[in-house]
Amino acid sequence: MQNRNELIKKMLDKYSDMVYRIALTRCNNKESAEDIYQSVFLKYSEKMPKFESEEHSKAWFIRVTINLTKNENASTWNNKVVALDEQMQFETKEDADIFIDICKLPQNYKSVIYLMYYEGYKVKEIADMLEASEGTIKTWLYRAREILKHDIIEGGV
Amino acid sequence: MKKNKVEQVYDQIHAPEKLKQETFEKMKKSKVKKKANYTFILSVAAMFIFTFAIGSLYNNNNVIKEKAKPLAIQTETSDLLHFKSTQEIREYFNENYETTTAKEIYDFGIQEEATITNDSVKSERTESANKKEQINYSKTNTQVENVDEADFSKTDGKYIYYVTNNTVYIVKANDLNLDSKIDFSVSSEENKNYYPSELFIKGDKLVVIGNYIEYVENDNATNENRKIRSINYSSINTTKAYIYDISDKTNPKELRQVAIDGDYDTSRLIGNSLYLISTKYMYYYPEMKDDEILPIYYDSISSDQYKTVECTDIVYSQGANSNIYKTIGAIDINSDDEILVESFLGYTSTVYCSENNLYLTSDIYNEGNTDILNSTEIYKFNISNGGLKYVCKNTVDGNVNNQFSLDEYNGNLRVATTVTIQEEPNKTTDNGEYTTVEIGKTTTNNVLYVLNENLEKIGELTDFGVEEKIYSVRFIGDVAYIVTFEQIDPLFVIDLSDPKKPTIKGELKIPGYSSYLHPYDENHIIGIGYNVKDNGYGGVTNETVKISMFDVSDLSNPKEIFSKTLGEGYSYTNVTYDHKLLMYDKERNLMGFPINMQNGKGRYENSILILNIDMENNEFKIHSKYTVDNSSYYIRKVMYIEDTLYILCDSEILSFDINTLEAISNLHLPYERQDRYLRTETVFIDDTLKTVE
Q1: Contact at CB, B231 and A129, closer than 8 angstroms
Q2: ipTM score
Q3: What is the pLDDT of residues B545-569, one digit of tens each?
Q4: Which terminus of chain A is more solvent-facing, meaning fewer CB atoms within 10 Å of its CB: N or C?
Q5: How many helices (DSSP H) and strands (DSSP E) are in chain B?
């Protein structure tokens, strides 16, 4: 049996950036994202859930991060985007613009964009993770892209 | 392989190393907690459902329950049906499970956006107690008179009640003395995962509402797809309300807890009747046990266990195949009657509530079937006298913008929608890795419907604001004011005095748009919105907040008599999608709201701006501005009691004299969970603004 600390370290190493990215995208604010980040990993160390596969553990971390950020105060989110714009550093102005535009999307839209275009999940899998129907996910995606207008989708793949 | 742009952007974001180290240290020190009681819930639920729960529901002859009964009678004649057994629910889900959904839900009013729903105000709720004392104070800016909407802060003229940092603070207004606080993050292990977000005050009762997450170990997933599916069972999410007796402000006494299944959407308080509305996505698979497919609820008054909603209390509409449970809970906060719960299968996004009826709308996306891409199902529930009774439903073309798109007047329901019309088909390609949808050309149109009490169409007005979308709506008596927008803002004035024949009386085209309309008096409306610029992608980007005064005394000739642009370069206010953030003092002609503006150094400042509406000189004058130059410290709201202004920040409340603008007092709101983020900055009055003026 693996030592608990080793396991904790392994999970932290593996999902650190992912949890941070999702938290930041959903909180629009570094401080809250850091709080969420800690809460997610503490939740893990307190529960020590057993995972059957890497996919399972990854989905667990995504789900818990999304759950914890659900209660982010929606009424201040746009204020926070403005502040975030100043805190983040990107290589190009375009990158910064894309990130800020994604952050400005409604919570579920941006989660879909992240999960699909960064993590590479399929619609079906995202539907399961976000507890919505596939049709809903497609709609969110459609709406998100309609709002974004950037050709983020065509840029490679 | 070339990266897509999202990858390119996110590859540049990494968790700070310091944070990671700090977290690791904390994780090592944390203790493994005992397995949560999921099995307990299931087994208890299973025991209770078919014995105690059903029995108690029928035996409990309380008033509310009685009133709710007609629901069952009604449904036989309507197109909304009741399930007769869990087997029927199973068959319903099975059908969905096996076939792909024909009708897909076009829900762009997901949880977050439900709170984003814009706009409005009207109500000057008169509370008899305060009437006597004649205290003039901020009321929550609600859409409908006498129908209170929950907010993160409220005042009764003597105390300020504020939910922030998972804590409810009760603060004496005159000296900002913290009389008591209810800190959910430390109060008990059970409450640790409770996230209070809003509250109501009614007499001596305090109602706190929020999401409650119960983390549970998942050990019953056995089917092949468990990997992801099982995650759905790692938590039970409920919308939970705590009711307190606050006759002693220093010692709030918990009277009751109620919870309904799913995430919190919204709530209303009419008299003593509290309505909670929640959404739960049901991830069905055939191996689920009977009790797992039913929504649960909880009421501490009758039991300390979760109960399941009876299958006969769950309604669904024929032909719709939705896996989303919408649950409405009705509670009389002054009685011991058990919570009344009704669930139905169907997604709804917008909630409009008049004194007697609750309307839920469901956005339907008609993919590929017709030229008209979106339609809205409207469900009507009668809630008069604390009851909860389904009445009827109907479908109209298009989708509503927010709760202000609906309005009940003289028994009729007026609904304004934007219809999306497909001009060219979509192209979908699936390369196995990504599904790419190339969106075909669409256009939009707007419709105003008048529906009678049975939601039958009696009048409609179509084809206004072609190729534009509705940005805001306000119904005032016989007149509808509708702002549509694409590149320029037309304000339509629509006469509804003949409900069968709504007619456009006037139209005003000005640059920018208003996304919240607030009635000023019978002849004037205030619009809060944005100036815009071309974004280079074929759309527009908001630039600066613009506030306008419209003269509508002549319906056929609406005029913008004066306006003010707030900030330079870029500014933003949340009041355009959360009407409850608006402070409005008719007597003093003052309005205040949070706003983000760039300061002289180009930095963004989060401020409260208070404007004086000067009808004599035709201008909005800046009365005062409270600001803080710290991007991680938020000013959330302003309210007033008599001659004192209260500025509510993340963890601080400050008071100022409304006339002299002198600081009176401030209160730091202590909370224990995340001490490393305690902030000590103080808000200051921005004097420089006077010179800008």
Answers
A1: yes
A2: 0.89
A3: 999 999 999 999 999 999 999 887 7
A4: N
A5: 12, 46
